[in-house]
Amino acid sequence: MSHHAPARRFRCYTWRAFERRDGCHIEAEIECGGAAPCCPGCGAILEARSTTRFARSLPLDANGYDLDCRGCRRFWCVVRHTSRSIRLLRMRRLAAAVRAVRYSRADAERPFAGEQRRIAAVA
Ligand SMILES: [Zn+2]
């Protein structure tokens, strides 16, 4: 991938999130709980911030912090759920599941409704 090329890395002045694959690597390092997590790009120790750039898009009242690599100008947002945010997420998932059941029941009552949706999705 071109954005991983070293020449570009040092000319990049805006902060960007790590790729998901790199993020998983960082999360795995945190899980291990040993040494401070390192940057998957350059191997430097990541610097923890007290807040996250993604604060507004975090689910509900969960909080988080960013792990920064100054060299790569990349960061990874570590999400810390509260017991309340986990409970609310579960309720959201339950609500989505109930909606899904309702849709499939509606399809059973009106046999062509589902078929029309499928045709629309293909078109
Ligand atoms: Zn780095």
What features would you describe in this structure?
This protein is an alpha+beta fold. The chain has two domains: 2-80, no CATH class; 83-122. It is built from four helices and four strands, in the order H-E-H-E-E-E-H-H. The chain has helices at 6-9, 20-32, 83-109, 111-122; strands at residues 16-17, 47-48, 63-69, 74-80. It has a four-stranded mixed beta sheet with strand order 1-4-3-2, with helices on one face. A hairpin with a 4-residue loop joins strand 3 (63-69) and strand 4. The longest helix is centred in the last third of the chain and has 27 residues, at 83-109. The structure holds zinc ion. Zinc ion is lined by residues 39, 41-42, 44, 69, 71-72. Residues 39, 41-42, 44, 69, 71-72 line the site of zinc ion.
What's this, in brief?
This protein is α+β, with helices and mostly antiparallel strands. It is 46% helix and 15% strand.
User: Average pLDDT value?
Assistant: 79
Ligand list: zinc ion
Radius of gyration: 21 Å
So how many helices?
Answer: 4
Order of helices and strands: HEHEEEHH
Across the major sheet, the strand order is 1-4-3-2
The rounded distance between the terminal residues' Cα atoms is 33 Å
Strand segment count: 4
Provide the number of structural domains. Answer: 2
How much helical structure, as a percent, in the residues?
A: 40-55%
Q: Give the overall silhouette.
A: elongated
Assembly category: single chain
Low-confidence stretches: none
Strand content: 5-15%
Supply the helix-strand structural class: alpha+beta
Biggest sheet statistics: 4 strands, mixed
